[in-house]
Design goal:
alpha/beta; 46% helix
Amino acid sequence: MKIAIDAMGGDFAPREIVQGSILALHDSEIKSLSQNALEIILVGQKDKIQHELSLIHKVPFERLSILNASEIVEMDESPAQACKQKKDSSIIRCCELVGQHTADACISAGNSGATMAASLITCGRLEGVLRPAIVTIVPTTNGVSVLVDAGANVDCKPKHLLQFAIMGDVFAQTALNFKNPRIGLLSIGEEESKGNDLIFKTQELLKKASINYIGNVEGRDIVNGQCDVIVCDGFVGNVALKAIEGVGELVFKLLSKELHSNLITLIGTFLAAPAFRRFKRTIDYREYGGAPLLGINGLSMITHGKSNAFAIKNAVRATLRSLNKNITHVLGERILAYGQEF
């Protein structure tokens, strides 16, 4: 298995990206998932990557290579313009490796819009897919749920949301082993009479689809475990995801502050330390690695812009799991089976 990683993407590139890649090559779980056959291609400015590698002890160079890419797509750049003007950017070169079948998947913590645009340009869409979507995992009170779309498409039509529901259903069953996942349409109320024109028209399509559609769901249902797959357009999905992330950080900070406020609570904190560590891991986006861009003819993993080495390592792990489940092929077959409905 070969995974191309955008070494120049993200707030902490290239150092954290390079370090995370090396952590992945040494990780026992990742070795098991790849049957000790993982190779990583670091894509970016070669001199900077080599400098970071020189600072790391025990680099497995036999399973690591570098592809030079002279340009960097900044986080605030227009995805369309960047992909048009920066042909030698690390994001473009990364996605090209997947499109050329030189790599099995790519990972980037850089500009997510540019990653999507580059993936479409170099890999193309799966037959029948109208728009690719970002599928992300969200922690809940009793496990995890799946949110789709998490930011790839800000303006959508009902038929797009129908495909997003199918993508979420495939991901939940294939990658997470959910049985007959419950699929809800994110709205401002559970009642069918609440919502906008997009919601009303999408409801009718989802009712006819061969999925376990349970109706409208509210924002709280993303995290309360009452729904397995939450469907929405990318604008709403990205706002909801960032809000959940922010609330999680707020709760942990406030809880830490209160627990360190006096000696008695400090002693209690010490005794409950394992539980707090588990809680922190549950709400930490770095634990989940990244979100796959589904619908392209390949696999692109989009990771948080603030990803550190630990997050990059986990992104490699999540990518391998999706590759092992052959999720792109499964989705392609499912979309074709629904072809007449679009």
